[in-house]
Amino acid sequence: MRLIFLGPPGVGKGTQAQRLSETHKVPKISTGDILREAVQKNTSLGAKAKSFIDAGMLVPDDVVIEMVREGLKEPDCQKGYIMDGFPRTIEQAEALEKMLKETGSIIQQVLNFQLSDEELVRRLSGRRSCPHCQTVYNLAFHPPKQEGACDQCKSLLVQRSDDEPQTILKRLEVYQRQTRPLISYYEGQKLLININAVGSVEDVFERVVSAVQKGKMG
Ligand code: AP5
């Protein structure tokens, strides 16, 4: 299984990638998670990425492409992976294609998650996450059992720095300008499958599994 999860910020890519990764035992490569961990650990990658993330902008292509190149070399990625949040620009997509050609592999499906801007803003505004075990919650849709604390490890939940209202709007604008063109790019390659992201996490997950199964058969 070699999949790309594409879609605007807050559509639920990360949530669905995590589920599919757990149920189908496939690793996920989430560029957002890798970058946030680097920021948290204050590495040189984190120092490079922080100002872009906080401003709602994309981290430069060369930095992210190199990160993914390293990720793909991991032994657990040799049989498959779910890419969550990469590629995000045409340049990244072309670089990925080149990397895969070198190893003789291909992307099998690109799942394109779709949701209205209004709902995206609601999901992003309510998101809280655990800085310790990374579990993601939503105050409106999936709140923790005890207010402000992680169900798994009891750490204090935090709001992502890029989930502030102004930064959310910037990220949506950046998505339209830099990432949306990937829809036609992958449509042209006959890899794109649209996923309706309306409804509960379970509803959307059923659509994801069904799309992946159809992809395997076709
Ligand atoms: P990244 O972390 O990738 O952010 P994103 O793509 O903007 O996506 P999000 O994580 O905000 O949303 P999501 O679709 O994963 O939704 P989630 O499942 O969390 O990137 C962050 C930054 O890093 C970028 O802005 C950029 O600076 C940099 N970056 C990352 N990749 C890069 C790249 N390739 N190139 C350059 N820069 C890059 O869900 C959102 C909320 O909704 C949660 O609270 C969740 O609980 C809830 N939810 C999920 N599904 C449902 C549902 N069905 N119903 C109700 N609530 C739901």
What topology does this entry show?
Blueprint: E1 2-6, H1 13-24, E2 28-30, H2 31-41, H3 44-54, H4 61-72, E3 81-84, H5 90-103, E4 109-114, H6 117-125, E5 127-129, E6 136-138, H7 165-179, H8 181-188, E7 192-196, H9 201-217
Parallel strand pairs: 1-3, 1-4, 2-3, 4-7
Antiparallel strand pairs: 5-6
Helix pairs in contact: 1-9, 2-3, 4-5, 6-7
The structure holds BIS(adenosine)-5'-pentaphosphate.
Report on the architecture of this protein.
- The protein is 50% helix and 13% strand.
- The chain is an alpha/beta fold and 218 residues long.
- The protein has a single domain, classed as P-loop containing nucleotide triphosphate hydrolases (Rossmann fold), CATH 3.40.50.300.
- Helix 1 packs across helix 9, helix 2 crosses helix 3 and helix 6 crosses helix 7.
- The model has no long low-confidence stretch (mean pLDDT 94).
- Bound molecules: BIS(adenosine)-5'-pentaphosphate.
- The site of BIS(adenosine)-5'-pentaphosphate (AP5) has 36 residues, from helix 1, helix 2, helix 3, strand 6 and helix 9.
Residue fraction in strands: 5-15%
Q: Which architecture name does CATH use?
A: 3-Layer(aba) Sandwich
Please report the first level of CATH classification, the CATH class.
Alpha Beta
The count of DSSP E runs of length 2 or more, i.e. the number of strands, is 7
Mean pLDDT: 94
Unreliably modeled segments: none
The residue fraction in helices comes out at 40-55%
Q: How can the largest sheet be summarized? A: 5 strands, parallel
CATH topology, what is it called? Rossmann fold
Which ligands, by name, code or SMILES, are bound? BIS(adenosine)-5'-pentaphosphate
| Helix/strand order | EHEHHHEHEHEEHHEH
Cα separation of the termini: 13 Å
Side by side, the strands of the main sheet go 2-3-1-4-7
Query: Considering the protein shown, what is the CATH homologous superfamily?
Result: P-loop containing nucleotide triphosphate hydrolases
* General shape: globular
Which radius of gyration do the C-alpha atoms yield?
17 Å
